[in-house]
From TrEMBL:
Biological classification of the source: Bacteria, Bacillati, Actinomycetota, Actinomycetes, Frankiales
UniProt keyword Signal present: yes
UniProt keyword annotation of Signal present: yes
One Pfam family cited in the UniProt record for this chain: SBP_bac_1
Organism: Parafrankia colletiae
SUPFAM superfamilies in alphabetical order: Periplasmic binding protein-like II
Signal sequence annotation: 1-20
Protein name: ABC transporter substrate-binding protein
Length: 450
């Protein structure tokens, strides 16, 4: 399996960044030191260039903050804890980071809330933000409270019904990675991979080139089947959820997306897990010429392939293709930071914690490990060495203005819909009739969201 580097603990990575910048020896600096805001005049659109600070009264009053995160974000949470506890002696930031998924985190928060356990800050997957707004008491946050360097183009991804419920922290999109050596031997120009027609034409040339390799693999597990279908339909201007929150799986765009996925499946077995199956098939065993990944895994994957030396290959990546005649309107994946505290002073301190979790140093350290789209412009500038090393990543940063929020389904059983739709897409890729399966998916979606 490809050993994509796990996120270096953000506090440790921030310290390493500081050490590298100093180019000297000595003791390891306190990670909270690198998170100190820079004092400058406030920029337009924000109240303070360094981001919101709690009032002296509230800073003196609040002694404990409680933050909930999924397990793999524990290191990032610790960076915020380090900064805030140093800035406010006597404050304790408690971190609850045992939930394995965003859905499990919602269940944990709901149970703790019912038991009277206070939560001040939480990480929310984009698709469950409506649950945070409707059931978990998420407070509205003004983007004016953020640092001046925060990329305000990201804020719509954290909105629910026009209200800023969360501040995007980690943002990802879909990518198509390719083996350039295989493509060149088949006479394929990577520039033709921008549309689904171009991808199919490339797959045909690869299959006809006599190389013993499957042309393309699009993993379907972990909700990727629904994400891919929606990403393609969105490129045609009609995502699978309308503005009123209703499913629309019976559109020409959804059908065109399904036709492409069915054609892809005709080239060979498609992986389930994108990380434990799709990436090893592509990067280690060289069984596939093209594969779908998220941009968050790209840096690690490219690094691994590059480190193989002569056993590796030239790898490239492009934003996931659009439908013919479509435009890039990628459906975002990722999470946002939410403030759940209701008491005024707890809310002020919770907001300051959110600001610290979005510090440029933390964003830089995180992106160097997991190549999410940077949500901070200062961090983006400081990541230039990473983009020089892996120029394949640059194109994804240009997608920020066109990002589309993922669907968030209402209804008592709306949470079941992503998996249900993924199952229907898998059926299509297994040979099921496209029209009948999409009709069944639409009926199932309408039933689940009542």
């Amino acid at each position: 399996m490809i050993r994509i580097r796990r996120a270096v603990p953000a506090a440790v990575a921030a310290a390493l960044v500081t050490l590298a910048a100093c180019s000297g020896g000595g003791s390891t600096p306190d990670p909270s030191e690198s998170l100190r805001p820079t004092a400058r005049p406030a920029a337009a659109g924000v109240d303070d260039v360094a981001g919101a600070k709690a009032s002296p009264r509230c800073a003196a009053q609040v002694k404990t903050l409680r933050m909930y995160a999924v397990a793999n974000l524990n290191d990032v949470a610790r960076s915020g804890k380090a900064y805030l506890e140093k800035a406010h002696p006597g404050l304790t930031v408690e971190i609850v980071a045992t939930a394995p998924t965003y859905t499990a985190l919602v269940q944990q928060l709901s149970a703790d809330r019912s038991a009277g356990q206070r939560a001040d800050v939480a990480v929310a997957g984009f698709d469950v933000l409506p649950t945070f707004a409707a059931q978990l008491g998420a407070q509205e946050l003004s983007p004016r409270l953020l640092r001046a360097s925060y990329d305000q183009r990201m804020t719509p991804l954290g909105q629910v019904g026009g209200r800023q419920i969360g501040i995007p922290q980690q943002v990802s999109t879909l990518a198509l990675a390719y083996n350039l050596d295989v493509l060149e031997r088949a006479g394929v120009d990577p520039a033709t991979l921008t549309t689904t027609d171009g991808v199919i034409a490339a797959a045909e040339r690869i299959r006809a080139s006599g190389q013993d390799i499957q042309p393309i693999d699009i993993p379907t597990g972990q909700g990727f089947a629904q994400w891919t279908l929606n990403n393609l339909a969105s490129s045609g201007g009609v995502p699978i959820q309308d503005d009123a929150g209703r499913p629309r799986l019976n559109t020409p765009q959804a059908r065109a997306a399904a036709q492409f996925l069915a054609r892809v499946a005709s080239y060979g077995p498609q992986s389930d897990s994108p990380t434990s199956q799709g990436l090893p098939r592509f990067g280690i065993r060289k069984e596939t010429a093209m594969t779908m990944v998220t941009v968050a895994t790209l840096a690690g994957g490219l690094r691994f392939i590059q480190d193989q030396g002569e056993r590796g290959f030239r790898a490239g990546a492009v934003p996931f293709p659009t439908l013919p005649g479509g435009t890039q309107a990628p459906v975002a994946g990722g999470n946002a930071l939410t403030v759940l505290a209701e008491d005024q002073c707890q809310r002020e301190m919770a907001t300051e914690l959110v600001v610290s979790l979005l510090a440029p140093d933390v964003i830089v350290a995180s992106t160097e490990s997991l190549s999410y789209l940077p949500v901070d412009t200062e961090a983006l500038a400081r990541l230039e060495p990473l983009y020089r090393q892996y120029p394949q990543l640059r194109a994804f940063n240009d997608l920020a203005p066109s990002l589309v929020a993922p669907p968030s389904w209402g209804g008592a059983r709306g949470g079941e819909l992503p998996q249900a739709m993924s199952d229907q897409v898998v059926r299509i890729m297994g040979g099921a009739d496209i029209d009948q399966t999409l009709a069944a998916a639409q009926a199932e979606a309408e039933a689940l969201t009542r």
